[in-house]
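User: quick one - fold this with phenylalanine bound?
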Amino acid sequence: MDERIAMNELDALVASAETDFAQAALPADLENAKARFLGKSGRITALMKDLASLPVDEKKTRGAAINLAKQAIEAALNARRQALADAELQAQLQAEALDVTLPGRQRGPGGLHPVSITLERIEGIFASMGFEVADGPEIETDWFNFTALNTPEDHPARSMHDTFYVEGAGPDAPPHLLRTHTSPMQIRHAVQHVKRHRAALDAGEGMPEIRVIAPGRTYRVDSDATHSPMFHQCEGLWIGENVSFKDLKVVFTDFCRTFFESRDLVLRFRPSFFPFTEPSAEVDIQFQSGPLAGRWLEVAGSGQVHPNVVRNMGLDPERFIGFAFGMGPDRLTMLRYGINDLRLFFEGDLRFLRQFR
Ligand code: PHE
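Assistant: Sure. C-alpha cells for the protein plus phenylalanine:
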C-alpha cells in the first residue's frame, strides 16, 4: 500500500470528522457523529481491526498514523463539545437575563386615612388646651364598660343584641366584650391618676386635675350607611375640685369651632340621659354657612360625671366634680369633608382614600 495515499486517506478521515462535528448543532447530533468515527463499528475502529492482517513493520507505522488521526478526531470532538456547551450556557444566560436598568416599582408616598387625620386634629386641639391623650384595651371587662360606669344590669346596651361578647375567657373569668364606647377609659385613666397621687390625697393635699382624651375603636352590633360595627369614639374627661358645666361648654365649643375652622359655629346642649353622667346632654352643632347651614347635627354625648362614677375612680364625689364627653370622629370626618356614607371609610377603596392625601 502506498503510504502517502494511506496518509491522505487518514487526513481525509480527520477532515470529514471535523466537518461532521462542526455540522452537529445539538449535543445528541455530535454523539451520533462521534459514533460514526470512534464507535464500535466506527471508521477508526475498523481501520484498527484491519491492522491485524498487515506485516509487522507496516503495522507499526500505520498503527501510529491511525493513532494520530484518532487523537485529532478526539481533539476535534472535545473542542466541538466545549463549543456546544458554551453556546448552551450563553443561550441560557441570555434567556434568564435581568434587565437591571428597568426602573423599579415605586411605593407611593402614602397618606393618612381621613379618620386618622381627624384623630390627629382632635388630639392637637385638646393638647393645646392641656389635655393628655390616653389609650386603652378594645377588649374590655364588663366592669369597666358597664358596671363602673353606673350602668345597671338591665340596661339595653348590655343585651347580646347590641354588644359583641367574647367567648373563651373561661367559666370563672369575668365576662369580656368588645368595648361599646370609650367611656371605660374614664375609669381606667382616673384610677391610674388617683393611684399616683394617693399619698397626697390622703394627706389632704389634693391632686393635679384629670384632663384627658381617649380616642380609639369601639364596637356595636349595628350596620348601615351611618353605622359600622367598628367605629371610632373619642372620650374626654376633666375632673377637679371646681370644674363646672360651664367649663364643658367652653371647652367643647372651642374645640368644635377650631376643628371646623368656623368661628360662628353654634352649639346646643340638649338634655339627655346617660347612666354615668348627671345631668346629661347631647351636643348638637349648627353651621351658619356652607351646604349644612341651619341644620342641627348631633356630634357628642356629654354630662357632669355621676357621683357613683367619681367614687369608682377612687375619689370623693363631695370634693371632686367634673364632666365627660364622648364624640364620634367618624361623624366629624363626614361633616368636615361632606361624606354621606360611613362605610366608605372602612372599605379600603384607594380611589376614595387618595382624595385625602
Ligand atoms: N359613651 C356615650 C356613648 O357612647 C357618650 C358619652 C360619653 C356620654 C361621656 C356622656 C359622657 O353614647
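One thing worth noting: The chain has two domains: 3-95, 114-356.
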